[in-house]
Amino acid sequence: MRVLLLPSWYPDDGDPLAGIFIRDQAEVLASVYDVAVVVPVGVTGRRSTQGVDGVLPVFREPFSGRVPGVSAALNAYRRAAERGAERARAAVGPFDIIHAHVSLPAGWAAVDLGRRLGIPVVLTEHLSPFDPATGAPKQQEKIREALTASDAVVAVSPHLREQMRRFQPDLKSAIVGNVIRDSFFTPSSEDDPGRSVRFFSAGILTEQKGFSVLVDATRILVDEGMRLEVVIAGDGPLRMELTAAAADLPVVFFGALSRERMREELRACSAFVGPSLHESFGVVLGEAMACGKPVVSTRCGGPEFVVGSEAGLLVAPGSAGELAEALASVVEGRVAFDPEAIRSSLVTRFGEEAFLAAIGAVYERARAGA
């Protein structure tokens, strides 16, 4: 089967982390299917490019980034997707299925492209929070068209599916979690149970990710005389503010890390902390679990799907007190988790083989018109 992947976000030199979880899916799919990626790029003055990203042929197609108005901008994106798909088709052959990620803009463009090419469309939604009803009427219209005209719709968690159904009550959708690269994120063979307690967290430094709550929770623990270290990886608009707030605390900011360095830090930590205010899934939580590490996270949508009782603790989002209490239970040894059980719970549900089986079933239903 030949799959045309159309993402709303995809990594590039300017933003190597944008949609990295979509590239992960593409690379895993490429182990079974022939996959080509078409990326419309909203810039002016740039030419079409064709390159190879690892094992993936990637066709980047520019369109004007200065088009005014929602409809005009989406139409410009759609035309770029068509041009990119035509170049991809000429280079690798006709496609059997289109897999789009996120309703706007990719999903909406994909259903139009699917009609033109006469092939089914699968749409995976990732957006958090998913609340189109607060957007402009034109956006709502096009999101609804993407959802209802796709041959199969996938939500990455039950919570996200419920949000989607509130917008489109009769929506039929499958739940397929994001893939976790369990062949790359693996436990360390040199784990040191006697090391000091070290919590690790990572993400874009924005309000959504809840790092200010983690800083506040750390202060509570320090004031109670507990000894611990907190490492936060990532960059973003709140970095200076967070750094200032944590200046007198045992909190270290590492900035953005490579995949290899992320694995090192996950292997070295006592537990991973995910303090987000809302998440549709929580890929980094799964990466920590694949390394056999327990997770302390929030009940904010996706984490409830990813983190079971065998793998960690969940607290209310935005509550520094609850987060501090959960972290204290790790510091004081009041909770213990089996690394093998943690990893097994992840691999059997969200590992590469599990993902391929689940998304393969969705592809077959879409092609059969079921």
Description:
By secondary structure, the chain is an alpha/beta fold. It folds into two domains: 2-179 and 351-368, Glycogen Phosphorylase B (Rossmann fold), CATH 3.40.50.2000; 198-349, Glycogen Phosphorylase B (Rossmann fold, 3-Layer(aba) Sandwich), CATH 3.40.50. 42% of the residues lie in helices and 19% in strands. The protein is built from 13 helices and 14 strands. The protein has an eight-stranded mixed β-sheet, sandwiched between helices. The protein has a six-stranded parallel β-sheet with strand order 11-10-9-12-13-14, sandwiched between helices. Helix 3 (103-117) packs across helix 4. The longest helix is centred in the first third of the chain and has 23 residues, at 70-92. The radius of gyration is 21 Å and the shape is globular.
